[in-house]
Amino acid sequence: MAGNSTAPARQALSVASSQAQRAANNSRAWHRLYTTACRHSLPALACVGRPSGTAPVTLPASRRHFLQLAGAGLALAGSGLPRSAQAQPATVAPPNANEGAVLLNFNECPYGPSPAAQQAARDSIASCGRYRFALAGEVRDAFVAQADIPADHVRLYPGSSEPLSRAATLWTGPQAGLVVADPTFETLGEMAAARGAHVQKVPLRNDGAHDLRAMVAAAHARPTGLLYVCNPNNPTGSISPTEELAWLLANKPAGTRVLLDEAYLQYSEQPSLIAQVAQRDDLIVLRTFSKLYGMAGLRLGVAAAHPERLRELASLGENPLPVPALAAALASLRDPQLVPQRRLQNAKARQTTIAWLGKRGFDCLPTEANCFVVDVQRDGAAFAKAMADNGVVIGRSWPIWPQRVRVTVGTEEEMARFRSAFAKVAGVPA
Fold it and tell me: What would be an example GO MF term here (predicted)?
């Protein structure tokens, strides 16, 4: 009887020990994830919220890498752990946990979702037990009404990254190359290269804009499945005029599709080319709610194209959309003042800072986005690290531009802190 009475206790102890071991393993996995993420992120991320005992790491890469790695970590957190372990998988703080740092590194909107969008997202939580397909239809209808295109030419995705990735899967490969600018947003090129596609990088012009004629020539030089134009460009913020884009569409190879990424276009006064998808079957236009609308963490994007192109994108699978993102997007689209107000706020803070830099001898490329590239006249990675040491996290440099760094435009207060830190690091008057 005595032995039987202790059996439950031993069993409970064994279970607790097993759970504790899994929790410890999970904590170590998150620790490894964080270290890897920092290695693949901006140098400054290693200085903000780094786990105790983790050495600083400095290898740069894109925001997209960090999100992909974080997603892998979330998968680890849900791998059969008990609820108590899942609730606190590790003590690792996220990279932006240090609220004292100014984050000007990921081209995020510093204002977040509008007050109306935030309220709509909160109000939607109670109905998140349903997929709310009808709400997705409302968002689509509101979007196409503003874009003046047919509803069957638009499909919503959880961010514009997904259709961009699908485009690489569908339209690039060993016999279908990709033509991109250099530098530009890199995810598409990385995915195409992973599929065995030849990725032809065409340097930007001296003014930071796409060299569209050279890109068309490159597309004619070898079989090209996709030609990618980010307009305004990331990282430069430079923009290609509508007439130059029209020339590209008229002169590219007949079998080459054009992926036009307009993630930053709302920061510019230039009209969108999205209406062209109603006349062409070789143009895919991407838009996002992540930038000016301030919904980077909510995830909602748009692919606009001929219905046949949309069917090809959908052939890789369809998933429901996050209800709070849909609710916030609908509220944003219904606010006619949101875009012009934020465009003006961004332009004012951007122009003030670029003028300040120019007076101190630091050149910036022309920009119409929520970011700019500045020549810091020294190693860009080291400069970014020094800025982070002074509480301001900026973007990175590129192999083609080792002395130029990208800076996201923050609030006026954040840009004032940027200027103060820049003056200290560069050794120029504040």
Answer: transaminase activity
Q: Distance (Å, rounded) from C-alpha 23 to C-alpha 136? A: 38
Instruction: For residue 54, give the DSSP letter.
Output: P
**Based on C-alpha coordinates, what's the Rg of the chain?**
24
Point out the domain boundary residue: 287, 314, 333.
333
In whole angstroms, what is the distance from residue 409 CA to residue 384 CA?
15
For residue 373, which of 361, 383, 364 has the smallest C-alpha distance?
Answer: 364
Q: Find the CATH number of the domain harbouring 404.
A: 3.90.1150.10
pTM: 0.80
Could you tell me if 327 and 350 lie in one domain? no
What are 203's strand-pairing partners? 182
**Tokens read off for 45:** 């991320």
- Give the residues across from 406 on adjacent strands: 373
321 and 349 share a domain?
no
User: Does a structural domain hold residue 158?
Assistant: yes
Same domain for 67 and 145, yes or no, is: no
**Two tokens, residue 253:** 């190879």
**What is the C-alpha to C-alpha distance for residues 6 and 8, in angstroms, rounded to an integer?**
6
Contacts of 309 (CB under 8 A, 6+ apart): 257, 281, 284
Gap between the Cα atoms of 235 and 15, Å rounded: 51
Query: Does the CA dihedral 406-407-408-409 come out positive or negative?
Result: negative
Question: How far apart, in whole angstroms, are the C-alpha atoms of residue 134 and residue 112?
Answer: 25
Residue (of 177, 141, 202, 178) closest to 329 by Cα position: 141
* Residue 404, domain extent: 338-426
For residue 170, pLDDT beyond 60: yes
Tokens of 68: 């992909």
pLDDT number for residue 99:
64
Spatial separation of the C-alpha atoms in residues 55 and 111, rounded to whole Å: 32
Given a cut of 90, whether residue 40 has pLDDT beyond it is no
Read off the pLDDT of each residue in 163-187 and give the average, rounded to a whole number. Answer: 98
